[in-house]
Amino acid sequence: MAERVIMAEPYPLAFQPNATALLIIDMQRDFLQSGGFGEMLGNDVSLLRSAVAPCQKVLETARAMGLLVIHTREGHRPDLSDAPPTKLSRGRLAVGIGDKGPMGRVLVRGEQGHEIIPELSPFPGEPIIDKSGKGSFYETDLDLMLRNHGIKTLIVCGVTTEVCVHSTVRQANDRGYECVVLSDCVGSYLPEFQRAGLAMITAQGGILGWVSDSSAAISALRSASSVEEN
Predict the structure, then answer these.
(1) Is 185 one of the catalytic residues?
(2) Per-residue model confidence as pLDDT tens digits over 179-224
(3) Is 100 a catalytic residue?
(4) Which residues lie below 8 Å from residue 160, measured CB to CB, with a gap of 6+?
(5) Which of 30, 55, 131, 179 is catalytic?
(6) What's the CA gap between 163 and 184, in Å, rounded?
(7) pLDDT tens column, 109-124
(8) To pair with 21 at 20 to 30 A between CA atoms, which of 31, 55, 121, 149?
(9) Residue 93 CB neighbour total at 10 angstroms
(10) 178-187/13-15 β-pairing
């Protein structure tokens, strides 16, 4: 399959559709819904929810094209044996990881809050990476999965921009993957972190990758699909 181009910053990104995957990071109830961990921390979850509709459109296009779609969730085993004590104690929170919240135990696998929001629910057969850290490659089989599928380029969506998205992009960059982050498909509780997080990715000629948006990505994917059909 011939290379195509996604219009992006700092310059257009050439990609091969059959070597490209969509990675959707941590679009979980605990982070995006009222009553979740994010709101309990005092955040305005609507700032993250603005990314949901653009993510839906990209996801629909990726599925129609037959791209590999991978979802991630941050969370821990019920016994918290995979959660470092430093992570559990940080913030001196009244309700923290493992504690009972409105949607079950916070960031614990199997609880309601840990699940991906209904608008972006994985289809059967779409891999879900359960991770205990911020980065999606840490102590997971994501790298093996991508290499087994011959993936070279990642279209990245999810939350939050400056934490789990950034951590994942940095890990992917060090492993040789090319990442394009879609600015309207990622979100932060803090607008200044959103701006800085995206700027860091494209700095110095794209030191960590590329930044584009849902419209440009969808246009490039549809263009690639029409070329193949012809």
Answers:
(1) no
(2) 999 999 999 999 999 999 999 999 999 999 999 999 999 999 999 8
(3) no
(4) 26, 31, 48, 186, 187, 188, 189, 193
(5) 131
(6) 16
(7) 999 999 999 999 999 9
(8) 31
(9) 14
(10) unpaired
